[in-house]
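Morning!

This is the sequence you dropped in the shared folder:
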Amino acid sequence: MINKISERFNILDIVKKNIFLLILLFLFGFIFFYRLDYSTLSSWDEAWYGSIAREMVKTGDFIFMRFNGKPYYDHPPIGFWLMATSYKIFGINEFSTRFPSAMLGLFSIILLYKIAEVLFRRKEIGFIASLILGTSVWYVIRVRTGDLDSTFIFFYLLTIYFSIKSAKNIAWFPLVMLSFGSLILAKTLAGITAAIPITLLHLFNFRNFRDIRKTILFLGIGIFCLFIAVYPWYHLHLQKYSEFYNYHFIHIGRRDKNLSSFLQVSLEKPLFYLHMGVRKWYKLWQLALVMTIINLFALFFSWRKKPKKEILSSFISYLILLIWNFIVLYPFLAAKEVEIWHLIPTYLPMSLLVAAIFYDIGSMSYHFLFQNFRKHLVWYRLIYLSAFLFLAIVQIVNFRKEIYPQSRYTSEQVDISRRLSKYQQKIYVDGDYLPVAVFYSTKQINSLVYESSGTETFNKLFAIDNGDVIGVTQNWVIDDLRKKNFFLKVLEKNSKYSIIAEQ
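The structure's back. Tokens below.
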């Protein structure tokens, strides 16, 4: 009886110590997985990536990726490996396509919590930082799709977490480099920015590396781990494809930009996208930047007057967050082409910065108002948590209809693509939904080339292989062609699209 009571209290103690973590797991487990498979895959990226991962499973080739019969090397393979593994476990469907992304999105929430807890030694800060990230609408949108963003964010945060550990104990450095290598294999060149916080964390903590032999040993092992993780895939592709370097690194990685173009900054579009991506957290982030700069000056002069380890640690943490925020955001300010989801990596330092600076500035203000601050600390923490929880709830209520399908939904594109699976002829569809057609038909699909008129387009189409082809076009196109006395055979149709052949 006593043992059972003791066990119960142990469980209660564990729950009490990890209450923030448990709330995050349950809340975002629901937000990320609820109705995950209610909608069909979309073009381009989601159905595109799903088709590539399915081809991996089909052929067993996990090195040289292919899409629709052609080599694919826009991005490295780690996100596709995870998706292919999910296909092997759950079968090939919408849920298994999105499962790795949703799961890594949840792990990222936990990682951010742990990073904040280590940097600022406050569980409340970790909880609020994770709450901000997890309720940023475009983070939720991308976590719930079969894209590469969630994989990228997870390995970015894992690299930062291991770097914090390594800055205190160099024996962690091989794990830093393995995670950094995985980050490089997640998305073309984008993860390179993590090298700066990795370097800064170790430089600011150089006093921990007094054992020179141990430091050199683990640095060497770490660099070897990075080489082993990254080199084989890139080496094989550079050998096999002559155009790989220019396409993968210059066209995709650098967007064909030269170094001088990175000095041409445009704020309007990237900051608008950042605002739309994080919604209510945007104004707080702007205020947090100003407060952080002021706080850095205050910490610096406080430390000079009365050197303390805690003040220096806080100064370093805020400085690294500010630099990290800048290096992640800046490439998008200098980019000609930027999409709203490209800015998701900026949410990471932003969330940490907002959570930490508002806690610290608030506690200083509260301390000024109440002489016996420790007596009122519980009330301050309650106010801090309540304010951010209120904003998070408002955010969730506002975006819930944007995120969750009201019922199971199959788009007209998916419906017509599934019907294509029975045909043996060459198939031509509009390039806008080519990946959807490839994924759901399980066929090799060709892009329909549009000429100056509809009649010329379909005359050329049916000249291929003596007319032994089929195409997919919108119903209004067929109506327009019939008015011009150009008649087609409609094999199947839905409310928007038709499968057509030569009459």
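Headline: Residues 169 and 208 are 7 Å apart (CA to CA).

More detail when I'm at my desk.
O.
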